[in-house]
């Protein structure tokens, strides 16, 4: 039996490269990474860094390169001035455009030294060491801070320590600062709707705990949570991650008969389209096309890591002590307790979640998995893939069809739909259940911040979902979604400036759709 680690398999393919853009009336169409005349890498700066700066700071490539050069100079200058000014050094900061270095000085007599170094001196009352001491006092009193206080930080441009309070809770922020015993003039309270929380990734194969007792493994990320084995928990059971932080709740479960479950996670956890390879990295999940019998398959679980073998049979029935489970897939891959629920991949395609078997990973064995597409379809779930896209389940191998490309020309909606779906841009295409199409024309568009509206008219007798996705720097992520009702799915979202695209997802039936959208 082949037990090689999944990272040794050379067939894993990275997510597809960036597509071209399409122009939306009144807005420039660009590559989502905003590669506007970005120069080649220089001074050790990768082109990807310049691209990201260009996109997120609204700079040209040359402006991004100049900004980085100024920042490198500023870093060296600050290091020297901090040493020379000593206790009189009050901190430093760059101007909003990144072109000017400001240096705070507690002794006006030292301003000339700052000017000589090419920076702009700013007179202040306190050196940065004094500000740090104020913050240290607040840190010591932190256990007494109420939930109305989100945090505190040294703010060198205002020569103060800022306490951040929830809107309407300024008094709570002031009471906290006063109770800590710090000088009143050194602290400033500001309000912000901030509720910081740690964020964790949901990855296939990772361990999770059920009701602080049993342990299973994550299968695959889906929008809002993950799928796993049904024998791991029942609806209402609570889960915690491998770090023992509260994670989510079993929303659905089936065992015996089947062996699947769905866990909905809380806001601290973000489902990712990857699987832990237990070798220091992850591997991508790019879909769920079913592999044939005889194909290689690898399993990831929290007890024995990643193990590989081949698919021996499909539609297998297993008589467990708890009851009979049908529709499983049989493999010659080993597994052990705790691996249950873990992810199975063939290449980069999701196959299923670990159910059970016999043997172990010392002497070998047989292991069965519950096919993932059945879980997705039965629960109307959307698989999260490595590209940041949300991919609905694919039909089993040998079935279904591929939708042809969408029309590249604006189309007129069918009679009666003009009022239902109207916008600046219109596209038509053909969709089938289990498939998705990117619009407009497989590309994307750029818009400034503001409201976006779209609707799609579904084919007769069919159901579709309409998703709006934003490019986040490495991938497109869904920011809004609407399912069709009475033949139409409507979507409205208030979004920041960026690159966007729509996905029309087939949920049931097949036929021609019309998408219309606008942004203003």
From TrEMBL:
Keyword list, A-Z: Disulfide bond, Hydrolase, Protease, Serine protease, Signal, Zymogen
Region (Disordered) residue spans: 386-419
Residue spans of biased composition, Low complexity class: 402-416
Classification via Pfam families: Pro_Al_protease, Trypsin
Domain Peptidase S1: from-to ranges: 226-376
Residues covered by the Peptidase S1A alpha-lytic prodomain domain: 126-184
Position of the signal peptide: 1-28
CDD domains for the chain: alphaLP-like (cd21112)
Family: Belongs to the peptidase S1 family.
Name of the molecule in the record: S1 family peptidase
Source organism (scientific name): Micromonospora fulviviridis
